[in-house]
Write a structure and sequence with these properties.
By secondary structure, the protein is of the alpha+beta class. Helix content is 62%, strand content 7%. It has 24 helices and 11 strands. The C terminus is likely disordered. The chain starts with a helix and ends in a 15-residue tail after the last helix. β8 and β9 form a beta hairpin. The strands form 3 sheets. Strands 6, 7, 8, 9 and 10 form a 5-stranded antiparallel beta sheet that branches. The longest helix has 35 residues. The radius of gyration is 30 Å and the shape is elongated.
Length: 737
C-alpha cells in the first residue's frame, strides 16, 4: 500500500492543476445540486419491529382519513391574571382563532377547546388542537405563517398564546461557537506548523471536503428523506477528521523535507507513510459509522452513512489534494523545525536549544520509566469519571427540552401548569378487535382496566373506526413524558393488554410519541452489545493487519472502552445531573438522548483508532527498523506527539463548537464527542498506551507465525519505501524489502 500511495502522492504533486480542477468541479457540481434541491427538513421517524410502529401502521390502515403521520399543533391560550378563558371576550377571541385556523388548505381539523373539554379546571388555560394532512417536514411555509398570524392576533386581544407540537419544526442553529471552534483550529495549526500557509492547507481542504459532503446531502435530502440533523453531524465529523488527516500528511511532508528530500519525493513519501495511516484510520471511522445500520433505525442509519461518506471524501482529499496544494505552495511550506519569517523564523537557534529533546520525547521517557504509576493513575482517573454512567437514564428530547425562549417550550410549560405534566405526553392505545366476538365489550374492558392502573389521570372513551373493529383510546399519565413512571405505565398497559387478549381476542397496542421514544430507547439498548461486537471485532481484525500484533489492537480496544465510558459519565453529570449545566447552556436536565450511547460508541471508536494508528504506527516503524521496544515508544512520541496533540485539540474545538446549537441533541453530541476526544487522546493514547507498551516490551509486537504468513502485508510503516535509493533517479522503480 505504501508504494501505491507513494506513486499517487507524486502523481498528484506533478499533476496538481488537474487534481485541483477535479475537486473544484466536484464542489461546484455538489453546490449546484444543493442549490436546486428542496431544503432539508426533519427526517421522518420510524422504528421497524416495535409495538409503537405496528400500532402506527395499523392506524393508517384502519383510519385512512386520520392522517396519523400528519403534523400537529397545540395553540395554548392563557387568560390574564384574575380572568378566565370562559369569559365572553376571551371565548370570542378563541373561537375566532379556531375559525381562522380551520381555513388552511392543509388543515384536517381544529378542535374547539370549549367543545372538547380543553379548558383547565381553574379556567385560566385552554388549548386548540390543529391536525394537518402532511407531516411537519412537508408542511408549507404558508401553513406555518397562518398558524403564527392567528396566534399574534389572539395576543393582540390580550391573551398569552404559545404554540407547541411539530408543526413549527425548524432547522437547528449552531450559533457562533462553531466559528470559534474553527478559529481555535486555525490557531493550533499555525502554532504547530509555524507557518500561516502550511496551517491554511488542512483548513482549506477540510472545508472543501465538508462542502462537497454536506452539499451532496442537501441535494439528496428530498429523495432519500435526509433530515437537517444528518448534514449537521456529517459536517461535525467531516470537518474534524478532514483537518486531522491533512494535518498528519502535511506534518510528514515537512519532516521528509527536513531530511533533505526533494519536494516531489517528500510529497510521495508523506502520502505513502502518513497516508497509509490515514487510510486505515478512515476505514475504522467508516466501519463504526456504517455499522450503525445494525440498529435498524432508518434515521440513525442515514446519519451514519452520510457521515461515513463525508469521511471517505476527507480521506480522498488528504491523499490527492494535499500533495497537489503542496506543489502549488512550493518553498513557502518549510521543512519541520523552520518557521516563516512572519512568525519569527530565520533566527539561528543555539546548539543547546537545538539539541534539547522536545516535549513528546520528555513525556514518553517519563512514562517508560514509571509505567505502572502512569497506568494506574490513568485507569483510576477514567474510572472515576465513568461512575455517573451507572445512573444513565435514556429518553428522547421533547418540547420540554427546548430553550425557554422558544414558543414550543412555553406552550409545554403552560400545558403542564393547566393540565398536569403528563398532558404533554399522552399515550394512544389502539385496540384491534377484528378477531373478537364482541368488539364494543372489548373496547370497554380495555378502558376500564387502564383506569385501574397506577399513574393514570385520564382515560378517554373508545373512538372506533367506521368498520367498528378498531378503536383508539387516549391515556394521560400523571407524570411527564420522559419520567421513569411514564415508562413503567407503558409497560403496565402492555402487560395488561396480554391478559385482555387472552380473554377477548382483542389486541392492545400502545403508541404515540412517548411510547415511540420508550421503544427507541429499548431498541438501542438491545442493539448496543451486538453493535460493539461487530464494530470492535471488525476494527480489531483491521488493526491486526496494520500493526501485525495481537496485543496492540486488544489494548487499543480496551482503552477505547475506558474513554467512552468516562465520556458517558461526563454526559450524565452535565445533562442528567446538571453539573455545569449553566456553562453548557443546558436549560433543562433530564434523560440522556437514547441514541447517545450507541452513537458515541460508533464515532468515538473511529476517532480513537485515528490516534492509535497515527501514534503507534510511528512506534512500529521505529521497532521494525531495529530500535528496542522502549526506545521505539520514545521515538514514536518524538515524531508524533506534537501532531497528535494538535489533532486532538482541533477535534475538541470543532466538536465543542456545536455545544452552542439550539438543538439539544446536537448540543449533547458536541459535548460528548469533545470530552471523549480529550479522555482518549490525552489519557488513553498519551498515557495508558505508552505505559502498557513499555510494560509489554517485545511481547507487544508478537504475532503467531501462521497468522503472520496468512495476513496480507500492507506496509503501513513504509518499509518498501526505505529500500529506495534517495540519491538515485526519482523515477527508478521501487523494490520491496
Amino acid at each position: 500500500m505504501a508504494t501505491f500511495l507513494y506513486k499517487l502522492g507524486r502523481l498528484a504533486f506533478r499533476r496538481r492543476h488537474f487534481v485541483a480542477l477535479i475537486w473544484v468541479a466536484l464542489l461546484t457540481l455538489a453546490g449546484v445540486g444543493a442549490a436546486s434541491a428542496p431544503a432539508a427538513g426533519n427526517s421522518s421517524f420510524s422504528i421497524p419491529g416495535t409495538e409503537a410502529q405496528r400500532a402506527f401502521d395499523l392506524l393508517e390502515q384502519r383510519f385512512p382519513g386520520m392522517s396519523a403521520d400528519g403534523a400537529t399543533a397545540r395553540v395554548v391560550f392563557k387568560a390574564p391574571d384574575g380572568e378566565k378563558m370562559t369569559d365572553a371576550a376571551h371565548k370570542a377571541t378563541v373561537e375566532k382563532t379556531v375559525k381562522e385556523l380551520s381555513d388552511g388548505s392543509e388543515v384536517v381539523s381544529v378542535a374547539d377547546p370549549y367543545e372538547g373539554n380543553a379548558v383547565s379546571k381553574d379556567g385560566s388555560i385552554a388549548y386548540a388542537s390543529v391536525s394537518y394532512k402532511v407531516s411537519g417536514m412537508e408542511l408549507e411555509d404558508s401553513s406555518r405563517d397562518a398558524l403564527e398570524t392567528a396566534a399574534d392576533q389572539a395576543r393582540d386581544a390580550g391573551l398569552t398564546v404559545e404554540i407547541g407540537g411539530d408543526a413549527l419544526q425548524t432547522t437547528p442553529e449552531t450559533g457562533a461557537t462553531e466559528i470559534i471552534g474553527i478559529a481555535i483550529a486555525a490557531v493550533v495549526l499555525v502554532i504547530t506548523f509555524g507557518s500561516l500557509l502550511a496551517a491554511g492547507l488542512p483548513l482549506l481542504t477540510a472545508i472543501i471536503g465538508v462542502g462537497i459532503g454536506v452539499s451532496t446531502i442537501a441535494a439528496l435530502a428530498a429523495a432519500l428523506d435526509l433530515g437537517s440533523t444528518t448534514s449537521t453531524l456529517a459536517s461535525m465529523i467531516g470537518l474534524a477528521v478532514g483537518i486531522d488527516y491533512a494535518l498528519f500528511i502535511v506534518s510528514r511532508y515537512r519532516a521528509e523535507l527536513a531530511e533533505g528530500r526533494s519536494r516531489e519525493d517528500a510529497a510521495g513519501r508523506a502520502v505513502g507513510t502518513a497516508g497509509s495511516a490515514v487510510v486505515f484510520a478512515g476505514l475504522t471511522v467508516v466501519i463504526a459509522l456504517v455499522g450503525l445500520s445494525v440498529v435498524n433505525i432508518p434515521m440513525l442509519t442515514k446519519m451514519g452513512v452520510a457521515a461515513a461518506g463525508t469521511v471517505v471524501i476527507a480521506v480522498l482529499i488528504a491523499l490527492t489534494m494535499i500533495p497537489a496544494l503542496l506543489g502549488f505552495a512550493g518553498r513557502r511550506v518549510r521543512p519541520a523545525g523552520e518557521k516563516s519569517k512572519l512568525l519569527g523564523g530565520g533566527r539561528a537557534k543555539s546548539a543547546a536549544k537545538a539539541a534539547k529533546p522536545n516535549m513528546g520525547t520528555r513525556w514518553a521517557s517519563f512514562v517508560v520509566r514509571r509505567p505502572v504509576a502512569v497506568l494506574l493513575l490513568g485507569v483510576l482517573g477514567l474510572g472515576a469519571a465513568a461512575v455517573p454512567a451507572a445512573s444513565l437514564e435514556l429518553g428522547l428530547p421533547d418540547d420540554g427540552a427546548q430553550p425557554t425562549s422558544t414558543t414550543q417550550r412555553r406552550a409545554y410549560d403552560l400545558l403542564s401548569e393547566g393540565f398536569g405534566p403528563g398532558f404533554n405526553g399522552p399515550l394512544m392505545i389502539v385496540v384491534d378487535a377484528k378477531g373478537s366476538d364482541d368488539a364494543k365489550a372489548a373496547f370497554a374492558e380495555v378502558g376500564d382496566e387502564i383506569k385501574g392502573l397506577k399513574d393514570v389521570v385520564t382515560v378517554t372513551p373508545a373512538a372506533p373506526n367506521k368498520a367498528g373493529d378498531t378503536a383508539t383510546i387516549t391515556v394521560v399519565p400523571d407524570s411527564k413524558p420522559s419520567s421513569a413512571s411514564t415508562e413503567e405505565l407503558v409497560h403496565a398497559i402492555r402487560d395488561k393488554g396480554s391478559e385482555i387478549k387472552a380473554g377477548t381476542d382483542a389486541e392492545v397496542l400502545v403508541t404515540g410519541s412517548t411510547a415511540m421514544n420508550i421503544d427507541v430507547s429499548q431498541k438501542l439498548n438491545d442493539a448496543l452489545i451486538p453493535y460493539l461486537i461487530l464494530v470492535v471485532g471488525l476494527a480489531f481484525l483491521l488493526l491486526i493487519v496494520v500493526f501485525r500484533s495481537i496485543l496492540v489492537p486488544l489494548k487499543a480496544a480496551l482503552g477505547f472502552l475506558l474513554s467512552v465510558m468516562a465520556a458517558l459519565g461526563a454526559v450524565v453529570a452535565v445533562f442528567q445531573w446538571g453539573w455545569l449545566s449553566g456553562l453548557m447552556g443546558v436549560e433543562e436536565t433530564g434523560p440522556v438522548m437514547s441514541m447517545m450511547p450507541i452513537f458515541m460508541v460508533g464515532v468515538v471508536f473511529g476517532l480513537a483508532m485515528d490516534y492509535e494508528v497515527f501514534l503507534v504506527t510511528r512506534m512500529r516503524e521505529a521497532y521494525v527498523h531495529g530500535e528496542k521496544p522502549s526506545q521505539a515508544v520514545v521515538t514514536g512520541f518524538r515524531h508524533g506527539a506534537r501532531v497528535v496533540t494538535a489533532a486532538a485539540v482541533i477535534m475538541m474545538a470543532v466538536f465543542a463548537g456545536f455545544i452552542g446549537s439550539s438543538e439539544s441533541m446536537i448540543k449533547m453530541i458536541g459535548f460528548g464527542l469533545a470530552i471523549a476526544v480529550f479522555f482518549d487522546a490525552f489519557i488513553v493514547r498519551m498515557a495508558i498506551v505508552p505505559a502498557v507498551l513499555a510494560l509489554l516490551g517485545k511481547r507487544a509486537w508478537w504475532l503467531p507465525r501462521w497468522l503472520d504468513r496468512a495476513l496480507p502485508n500492507v506496509d503501513v510503516e513504509g518499509e518498501g519505501l526505505r529500500t529506495r535509493s534517495d540519491a538515485g533517479d526519482e523515477d527508478r522503480e521501487l523494490v520491496r524489502a
